Amino acid sequence: MIVVRVIGLVLIIVALMALGSDALRSLEAGEVVIRSTSELWTLLNPGSHDAFMGWVQDGAPEGAVSPIATVMSYPAWAVVGVLGVVVAAIAALFDRKD
Question: Taken in order 28, 77, 11, 61, is the CA torsion positive or negative?
Answer without folding.
Answer: negative
